[in-house]
Amino acid sequence: MYPETPRHAPAERALEVHHPTPITPAVVTPAPFVPMQPGSVPAVASVVLPDGRVVTGYAINPAQPEPIAAKPPVSRAAVNIALGGIGFGAVCGGLLLLTTFIAALTALITQLITLAAVCFGGYVGVQIFKGSDHKSGTTVNIRKAVIKRSHFHG
Q: What residues contact 6, with CB distance under 8 A and at least 6 apart?
């Protein structure tokens, strides 16, 4: 199924082995230890572990975080000014949206009226300039006609 890998002579398969060189640590001289007497000798505590070993040491009190400084109270006038500004912004935005809506509605109505006028005007124009196939009715020459009591007399 898979092609076989070509066999090489033993000389070609020889590996070069590198051994790591250990790094010698630098010699560090410790700082001289200065003994200090504690102000008071703390109590020594011993704890017996479940496997029978005993651990002895000094108890350490947990570190107490520093108290948080109380925030100064905010004046009622500052709160009212901030809320008033937010309300004013909301009203301005609402009025802007309202005027935008009214302008868009006006443009839509204008376009609909224009469309109706174009359609109706086109219909009337077609009726006026359409050539009729049959001549019916009476042709009246308005210049020579005499109008008496809403009747034409020619």
A: none
- DSSP assignment string, 98-120: HHHHHHHHHHHHHHHHHHHHHHH
Residue with tokens 């076989």: 4
Q: Which two tokens stand for residue 109?
A: 């109505």
Q: What is the pLDDT along the chain (154 residues), one digit of tens a residue?
A: 566 766 655 555 566 777 767 677 667 677 777 666 666 655 677 778 888 888 887 767 777 888 888 777 888 888 889 999 999 999 999 999 999 999 999 999 999 999 999 989 888 888 777 766 555 555 555 555 555 555 555 4
CA separation for the pair 1, 98 (Å, rounded):
76
d(CA 104, CA 110): 10
Residue 128 neighbours by CB under 8 Å, 6+ apart: none
Q: Which three-class secondary structure string do you get for 37-62?
A: CCCCCCCEEEEECCCCCEEEEECCCC
